[in-house]
Specification:
Helix content is about 5%, strand content about 35%. The protein has about 210 residues and is mainly beta. It has one domain: Phosphatidylethanolamine-binding Protein (Alpha-Beta Complex), CATH 3.90.280.10. The protein is globular, with a radius of gyration of 17 Å. The model has no long low-confidence stretch (mean pLDDT about 95). It comes from Marinobacter segnicrescens. Pfam families: PBP. This is Phospholipid-binding protein, PBP family.
C-alpha cells in the first residue's frame, strides 16, 4: 500500500499550516492554521473493506507540572506517553483521498463534534483532556487538531501519521471513543499499514 501525507516529509518538521500552535516571540505560542494535511493512498490489499487514519505524538510528558510554565523547562528525561491528534475510522473502501482542510481548517475553541464527519467517523483526540481546565477552550475535540507541544520542552516531538487498511467495514466504535479504543478495535483486522514520522517544536532553542 502506498500512502502520502502531502507536505509531511519523513524526519522533517511539520509545516506550520498543519499546526494547532505556532511559535510566537511575544507569547511563546499562538494559534496556527490547524489544517489537516491531504492524505492519499493506493494499492490497498485485496479484501480491504475500510481504512483508518491515526496521527499521534509519542513524546508528550507523562508529568505535566512544568508544561508551559515561565522560568521552568520540561526535562527530556521525563517518561513520555502517546497523545492522539487525529482519529478517523470506518473510512469507506472506495475512498482514496482526504483533502487538505476537509477535517479541520482552523482552531475551533471548545472543539469539533465527534462521530460521523466529512469522511468516516471521528474519534476524540487528547486536546479534550489537555484543555479541560481552560474555560475558554474546554470541550470535546473530535477529528484533527495539529501539533502544539509545550514551548518549554527540552525534547523535539515526533508525530506519526498512519493509514491502516482493514478487513472490516466498521470497527463498531461509537460515542466519544479515543485512540486506545481504536488500537484495540483494529487488533486482528489490519491488512496493511503505512507511517510517516515528522517532527515539531515550539522551543526557540530547538527550532
Amino acid at each position: 500500500m502506498k500512502v502520502q501525507f502531502n507536505g509531511i516529509t519523513e524526519g522533517q518538521p511539520v509545516p506550520e499550516k498543519f499546526a494547532f500552535g505556532v511559535y510566537s516571540e511575544e507569547d511563546h505560542m499562538s494559534f496556527g492554521p490547524n489544517r489537516n494535511p491531504e492524505v492519499t493512498w493506493q494499492d490497498a490489499p485485496e479484501g480491504t473493506k475500510s481504512f483508518a487514519v491515526v496521527m499521534f505524538d509519542s513524546d508528550v510528558p507523562s508529568v505535566a507540572d512544568d508544561v508551559n510554565q515561565e522560568g521552568k523547562t520540561v526535562s527530556k528525561d521525563i517518561p513520555r506517553v502517546d497523545f492522539f491528534h487525529w482519529l478517523l475510522v470506518d473510512i469507506p473502501a472506495t475512498t482514496s483521498c482526504i483533502p487538505e482542510g476537509e477535517d479541520s481548517d482552523g482552531v475551533s475553541p471548545k472543539g469539533k463534534q465527534a462521530g460521523p464527519g466529512p469522511i468516516g467517523i471521528r474519534g476524540v483526540n487528547n486536546f479534550t483532556q489537555f484543555l479541560a481546565g481552560n474555560p475558554d477552550m474546554a470541550g470535546t475535540y473530535g477529528g484533527y487538531d495539529g501539533p502544539c507541544p509545550p514551548w518549554n520542552d527540552e525534547l523535539v516531538h515526533h508525530y506519526h501519521y498512519e493509514v491502516y487498511a482493514l478487513d472490516v467495514e466498521t470497527l463498531g466504535l461509537d460515542g466519544e471513543f479515543d485512540g486506545e479504543a481504536v488500537r484495540k478495535a483494529m487488533e486482528g483486522h489490519v491488512l496493511a499499514s503505512e507511517r510517516v514520522t515528522a517532527t515539531y517544536t515550539l522551543n526557540p532553542d530547538l527550532r
